[in-house]
Amino acid sequence: LGESALPAIFSVATFTGYSSSDYNGFRPNPGAEYSFQWNAPPAGVVADFTGPGHDARLETRRFATLAEYSQTTGQDRNSVLVDYDIFMNVPKLDARADPATVQRLYRAGDFDFRLKPDAAAVDRGVALPNVNDGFAGRAPDLGALEVGAAPPHYGPR
User: Fold this and answer.
1) Cβ count within 10 A of residue 125
2) How much is the average pLDDT of 85-112?
3) What is the 3-state composition of the chain as percent helix, strand, coil, each rounded to the nearest 5?
4) DSSP 8-class letter at 18
5) Mean confidence (pLDDT) of the chain
6) Residue 142's pLDDT band (cuts 50, 70, 90)
7) Nearest to 28 by CA among 71, 70, 75, 80
8) Is pLDDT of 156 > 90?
């Protein structure tokens, strides 16, 4: 979830041409010149492990929208755009409006990261055996908490 601290909300550097990303929820920063950055070897190069400072030949590609990034790179084809309002109680962070809010420590119990039942992230995940078994809908929800599940307990038991 972008909080206007940096333009890109998703920036990956990989030394392989076969790395992948998918099934994510993204909230780009409004007005950002680009929101997605993918640094990888040029097309046709399987891997370049020479590393930073050793003449690695990574191409930096930047994209304004999820659709443009996905179509051009083939990455995140099953990912969706989301916003802070998909959660039961997670206030928006905005580094431009209030820089102190981004760096604060928060009490976990003051937030509710469960998804609202009609959120864009519901049923948009992928089943991972032994990780997210027991999901409630057509597919797992994005994020750590399945809709309808009890909220986690923080603190002493």
Assistant:
1) 20
2) 82
3) 10, 15, 70
4) S
5) 87
6) very high
7) 80
8) no
